[in-house]
């Protein structure tokens, strides 16, 4: 698919000096808004910051990080900086603790959010003549509504199917002929699988491209999605605490996701020390919102590991780009002392012909030693009852995982279509050590 380059607004192309000046002005406003939140008021007092009197962007670094635990301790809406009557919408991210983390938007925030989504969708090819099928869940999750309003802001048409009921999803793709699909990457693969099961000719669909996000995925996963759905696949990133989708997204060059720096300041830190890493080095992303009203957030530690690139992009945008997320610092597995991200296992297994992109990593410590079993689903045409063929497949997987992730594991090959599918974010890891209270 040929996509012509189009810039949504001039703030995407500011010089560094212009951008810094804008960020500084907006940071001052944000800090004074944040000063209405009792938590931040106390933090500012403790670190001697007077929001009305900061001198430079680097003053931000004097303020301590905000963590997810801070938001949890102020459940449900303790970080609100506006009157309750000014809330226009509430979303939330599902937490491991059972209670969601709520995030609130004013009318202006909702507007801003639609603009930010429209920007990255435009950068990734969306035009007003397109029809888009949204297969993200609509609900507290920010994916469905966030992208929905972004598409409308572009002027394109939305088919809000929501996640689930995949055969119906395919039928609607066939009947209405959407140009683009929006969902998690793992759900995109599931849609592709059902298209094949339903014996629908992929070329009879009108799909040309897709915007995927909400969970980690690798370049090999992108290749599979593109091949199986016969589309161009774009990556976009965001998190509820910052605004939802719309924090960053890929342009047509697809060399990293442009961070919407006129609305968010990004830092990349060493998760262990909190110190900033050099540009281009991997670290944890930290974001400060610059324009959000209802819940301004200062130096929020995302736990997401990536790197930031400041070199120019051929599309003409001057904003920095973040690489795809390689993992979350709290998803990093330590296996017999070796650090492993689930994305490394994904990268390794997708090198092997015959495996489907469905896998589950199970970690346990049965006899005081960590053991990893990677359950890998096979593609139907490669599934065989010959022991030798299955053993050869296992050996290839072991080899790739050893080379890419530097660990030895057990492989459990499972029958085609036998692993559980999810409509949203796929669960890739079960750590029995955590369940048993060993870690
Ligand atoms: O997942 C927001 C979103 C929805 C982004 C739809 C893009 C598309 P949360 O539910 O709060 O918000 O989860 C945020 O998901 O910290 C990352 O760990 C992960 N994540 C989101 N996008 C990506 C991506 C939404 N493109 C958490 N690549 C984040 C890797 C991603 N991880």
What can you see in these coordinates?
The protein is of the alpha/beta class. Helix content is 30%, strand content 23%. The longest helix has 19 residues. The mean pLDDT is 96. Helix 6 packs across helix 7 and helix 9 packs across helix 10. The chain binds 5'-O-[hydroxy(phenylacetyl)phosphoryl]adenosine (DLL). The site of 5'-O-[hydroxy(phenylacetyl)phosphoryl]adenosine has 20 residues, from helix 5, strand 7, strand 8 and strand 12.
Bound compounds, each kind once, are: 5'-O-[hydroxy(phenylacetyl)phosphoryl]adenosine
Number of strands: 21
In the CATH hierarchy, the architecture of the largest domain is 3-Layer(aba) Sandwich
Number of domains: 2
The N- to C-terminal Cα distance equals 48 Å
What features would you highlight for this structure?
439 residues; alpha/beta; Rossmann fold; 2 domains; nine-stranded mixed beta sheet; four-stranded antiparallel beta sheet; 23% strand; globular; binds 5'-O-[hydroxy(phenylacetyl)phosphoryl]adenosine
Short description:
With 439 residues, the protein is of the alpha/beta class. The protein has helices spanning 16-34, 38-46, 68-73, 107-123, 142-154, 166-176, 185-197, 219-229, 342-349, 387-405, 432-435; strands at 89-93, 101-105, 131-134, 157-159, 180-183, 209-213, 232-239, 244-250, 257-259, 264-269, 283-289, 300-306, 308-309, 321-322, 327-328, 333-335, 338-340, 355-364, 371-378, 410-414, 429-431. Helix 9 packs across helix 10 (387-405).
